[in-house]
Amino acid sequence: MTSDIPESWRPALGPVLASPAARKLGAFLQAEEAAGKRIYPPRGTRLAALALTPLDRVKVVILGQDPYHGPGQAHGLSFSVSRGMKIPPSLVNIYKEIEADLGLPRGSHGNLESWAQQGVLLLNTSLSVEEGRAGSHAGLGWEAITDAVVAAVAAKAEPCVFLLWGNHARRKAEKVPGLIGGRHLVLTAPHPSPLSAYAGFFGCRHFSQANAFLEAQGRGGIDWSIAL
After folding, report:
1. What are the Cα distances from residue 122, in Å, to 22, 28, 75?
2. Residue 132 burial by CB count (10 A; 0-12/13-18/19+): exposed, middle or buried?
3. Neighbour-count burial for 63-86, b at 16+ CB within 10 Å, e otherwise
4. Residue 32 DSSP SS3
5. Alpha-carbon distance 177 to 165, whole Å?
6. Could you give the dihedral angle defined by the CA atoms of residues 104, 110, 116 and 120, in that order, rounded to the nearest 10 degrees?
7. What's the pLDDT tens digit per position in 52-65?
8. Residues 226 and 121: beta-carbon distance below 8 Å
9. Is 66 a catalytic residue?
10. Which of 211, 208, 164, 212 lies closest to 187, judged by CA?
11. In 3-state terms, what secondary structure has residue 67?
């Protein structure tokens, strides 16, 4: 797994990846696949968020929980699905908020690589999952790695935006010393899932607030539209 870490992230993640817990996680994933279990996203794409968004280019962090667990959906970016897949309900609601907030048309597909390439780190807490078993790889070691990712962004000199949707994302960010109340903009709202979107996600205007902050810092905003 260490060899898959993009160069820009290696200094921040080197110590945690050298830990016994990380080695145990790697051995677990190999054993699960050897036993014939289907693990998503496929090997080689689990660190796609880091590959598409180098540390020095991060402007915005969006934290998810774990990958989609259906065939063909997950490809290494939180909330995103591979092209050709049905847009998941939470992402539909994200698109609705973008439309209301910025006047942009809703995306016709669910692939968010264009955001990642602009500096939006689409990070899940766990970076793998067993087919059909949501949360199945939680607590197995990914959390220490993704904690280190969040801490590396929080340590950046350039101000960034953290969009924390739901209690899970908020609790993860609260563990990072100095993130809350520091130089970064931290915005919280309920999760965009159908169960909670109407409790405050809709109307949060996080996308316009993120761009206003980035532009005021001279970093340039994000084009939140989804190209065909």
Report:
1. 21, 24, 11
2. exposed
3. bbbbbbbbeebbbbbbbbbbeebe
4. helix
5. 19
6. 60
7. 999 999 999 999 99
8. no
9. yes
10. 164
11. coil
Which residue is it, tokens 């690589």? 113
Question: Which residue is catalytic, options 4, 56, 66, 223?
Answer: 66
Q: What is the pLDDT of residues 158-215, one digit of tens each?
A: 999 999 999 989 998 888 887 888 899 999 999 999 999 999 999 999 999 999 999 9
Give the position of tokens 């790697």.
26
CA distance 2 to 14: 8
> Residues with Cβ < 8 Å from 67, sequence gap 6 or more?
40, 41, 73, 74, 76, 124, 126, 127, 128, 129
Residue type, 142: W
pTM of the model: 0.95
